[in-house]
Design goal:
By secondary structure, the protein is an alpha/beta fold. The chain has one domain: 2-enoyl-CoA Hydratase, Chain A, domain 1 (Alpha-Beta Complex). Helix content is 47%, strand content 15%. The strands form two sheets. It has a six-stranded mixed beta sheet, with helices on both faces. The chain has a four-stranded mixed beta sheet with strand order 4-6-8-9. Helix 6 crosses helix 7 and helix 6 packs across helix 11. The longest helix has 16 residues.
Length: 259
């Protein structure tokens, strides 16, 4: 299958595949087409015995700066509940082989949620994380309220989500959100090295180990993400959501009305 918004390379003499998000003109914003291609690629990897681990990356400037706001700005609550866009994060979460994220530059909103679906996260010194959805009148809708809270704890997640502020790789490491920080020149190579080591292990044992660890960390994650998704969709019926997204697109400060 050919893709327009992602690049795939299978590393020679290894059992790893490298997937790069490829919308550089939009800082790899996650639109419906990109996410559709990404889930299709992972479905193919699931059936491919030559792939035992996957590296997911963007480019030096941005892993993904968030969802595509222009695409979402006119959506309704019903569309957000029924389109199937947010469920794509669930499908990637269900991928049974290990995913190593290689992150540099902006990793915000849906991009941060995509990284939290991965199993191991290697970041460059320039990586900037955040869940800034509150600034455009919504909340994280692809698992951010649930996965970030599980990763860093309630009080820190509350601060980060309610302020929407960005935070550095150093802060992400101190909170236990990521595994390692390396120079920009080597973050992708470091991720490939780690994925190659994991791919050299017995594949069934690796798959079951991942499944067991996710079960330990889940505490009914599926139901909680579904609850978040419904709250996220509800906000698409508010005037503040329209104002927030339009202000973002028009590069101005939003005027909140509280309805």
């Amino acid at each position: 299958m050919s893709y327009q918004h992602i690049l795939i390379n299978q590393e020679p003499d290894t059992k790893i595949a490298v997937v790069a998000l490829n919308r550089p003109q939009a800082l790899n914003a996650l639109n419906f087409e990109l996410m559709t291609e990404l889930t299709a690629a992972f479905r193919a990897f699931a059936k491919d015995d030559s792939v035992s681990a996957v590296v997911l990356t963007g480019n030096d400037k941005a892993f993904a700066a968030g969802a595509d706001i222009k695409e979402m700005a006119t959506a309704t609550s019903a569309e957000m509940l029924t389109k199937g866009y947010l469920e794509m994060w669930d499908e990637l979460q269900a991928f049974k082989k290990p995913i190593v994220a290689a992150v540099s530059g902006y990793c915000l909103g849906g991009g941060a949620e995509l990284v939290m679906v991965c199993d191991i996260i290697i970041a460059s010194e320039t990586a900037k994380f955040g869940q800034p959805e509150i600034n455009i009148g919504v909340i994280p809708g692809a698992g951010g309220t649930q996965r970030l809270t599980r990763a860093v704890g309630k009080v820190k997640a509350m601060e980060l989500i309610l302020t929407g502020r960005q935070f550095t790789a150093e802060e992400a490491l101190s909170m236990g959100l990521i595994n390692k920080i390396v120079p920009v020149a080597s973050y992708l190579d470091e991720a490939k090295k780690l994925a190659t080591e994991i791919a050299s292990k017995p594949p069934i044992a690796v798959r079951l180990a991942k499944e067991a660890i996710l079960r330990a960390a889940s505490t009914n994650l599926h139901d909680d993400v579904e609850f978040e998704r419904r709250l996220f969709a509800l906000l698409f019926a508010t005037e503040d959501m329209r104002e927030g997204m339009n202000a973002f697109i028009e590069k101005r400060k939003p005027a909140w009305k509280g309805h």
